[in-house]
């Protein structure tokens, strides 16, 4: 964090305020919190590995809702957290994922789903995605 803080001090106008706020929030966490979070992530990875013994893929909405640009500008961190609700875990758990268009909502907004699977199962997920698109 030291080099980042130094950069922020030397280049205050080169970082978007929302980006600065997200990065600076890292100061709130110590080594104990980091260790606990890493331990919890390992527990969740083990749980996910057990899941793949019972299912081939997980199908979730890609995003739970949409926001206007004005809404995103007003609350970028909160709304981006919402938008990532069904996808953020993918990288953390080392999963493969394929997003698929799935039509439109009642008010005409695009809607999509994402297929998730164990790492390196992209070929299988793409095959299922093609079947979904053809349906």
Please give a structural write-up.
By secondary structure, the chain is of the alpha+beta class. It has two domains: 1-51, no CATH class; 56-135, no CATH class. The chain contains seven helices and three strands. Strand 2 (95-104) and strand 3 (110-118) form a beta hairpin. The longest helix has 21 residues, at 31-51. The protein is flat and about 55 Å long. It starts with a helix and ends with a helix. The mean pLDDT is 92.
* Sheet with most strands: 3 strands, antiparallel
Helix content: 40-55%
Number of domains: 2
**Radius of gyration from the CA trace?**
19 Å
Average predicted local confidence, pLDDT: 92
End-to-end separation in angstroms reads 49 Å
Number of strands: 3
Query: Tell me, what's the shape?
Result: flat
Helix/strand-derived category reads: alpha+beta
Number of helices: 7
Assembly state of the chains shown: single chain
Indicate the low-confidence ranges by residue numbers.
none
Strand line-up of the largest beta sheet = 1-3-2
Strand content: 15-25%
The ordered string of helix (H) and strand (E) elements is HHHEHHHEEH
Secondary structure topology:
Blueprint: H1 2-10, H2 17-24, H3 31-51, E1 58-61, H4 69-74, H5 76-83, H6 89-92, E2 95-104, E3 110-118, H7 122-134
How would you concisely characterize the structure shown here?
This protein has 135 residues and is of the alpha+beta class.
